[in-house]
Design goal:
heterodimer, A: mainly beta, 7-stranded mixed sheet, 4-stranded antiparallel sheet, 11 strands, 0% helix, B: 6-stranded mixed sheet, 5-stranded antiparallel sheet
């Protein structure tokens, strides 16, 4: 248990579906992150939120839409995805945006058919 | 951009020591991390070292940092089958990101 919880752990969706990934951290951290892990590629940072404001968006397609309603919760809304978006999506948090150790959740394994 | 490199595979016999190596390019690193990922799971933080340290020991784990050569290593003493996993080196720079290597798959042979 790392203090960062992701749901669902596994998700299968069609290209026309709309779904969401949820992340919750119980560590009192101020920064939260979404990473994408694809086979044979380094982890890719997708989004960063600090104190509920987005501070980083690394050229992620608009079919991925993040939401951070408060400092403990982070969502990734998914719509009209492509099969190449199939990957493990990891949520992480740290005490502050530019400082502190980064803790990861268990990930949500997404398969797009 | 920053580059973090690791060898892809390492096999060791149970009970031996494992040494996983990592090189990085950004000299402004503040923290350097080792994460472990077991099949189907997320990344588990194993240990980390501040860039002003040379060595850190935590039970069976020893981290060595050579800032001059930008080289980081993780030594696992008395390696067990439960240590089989992918190990990621990562550096946190003075900018705004955490850069990961591609991971080293450690296989422990009984």
């Amino acid at each position: 248990e790392t203090g960062v919880t992701q749901t669902p752990r596994h998700l299968v969706m069609g290209m026309t579906n709309k779904k969401s990934l949820k992340c919750e951290q119980h560590l009192g951290h101020n920064a939260m992150y979404w990473y994408k892990q694809s086979a044979k590629k380094p982890l890719e940072l997708m989004f960063v939120y600090s104190l509920e404001e987005r501070v980083e968006n690394n050229s992620v397609p608009s079919r991925f839409s993040p939401e951070c309603p408060n400092s403990s919760h982070l969502f990734l809304h998914l719509h009209t995805l492509q099969p190449e978006d199939s990957a493990l999506y990891l949520c992480a948090s740290s005490q502050d945006f530019l400082a502190g150790v980064v803790f990861f959740g268990e990930g949500s394994r997404l398969t797009v058919l | 951009g920053e580059d973090v490199e690791q060898s892809l595979f390492l096999s060791v016999r149970e009970g031996d020591s494992s040494v996983i190596n990592c090189t990085y390019t950004d000299s402004s690193s503040t923290y350097l991390y080792w994460y472990k990922q077991e099949p189907g799971a997320g990344l588990q933080l194993l240990t980390y070292i501040f860039s002003n340290m040379d060595m850190k020991q935590d039970q069976r784990l020893t981290v060595l940092l050579n800032k001059k050569d930008k080289h980081l290593s993780l030594r696992i003493a008395d390696t067990q089958t439960g240590d089989s996993a992918i190990y990621f080196c990562a550096e946190r720079t003075g900018a705004n990101n955490l850069f990961f290597g591609t991971g080293t798959r450690l296989t422990v042979i009984p």
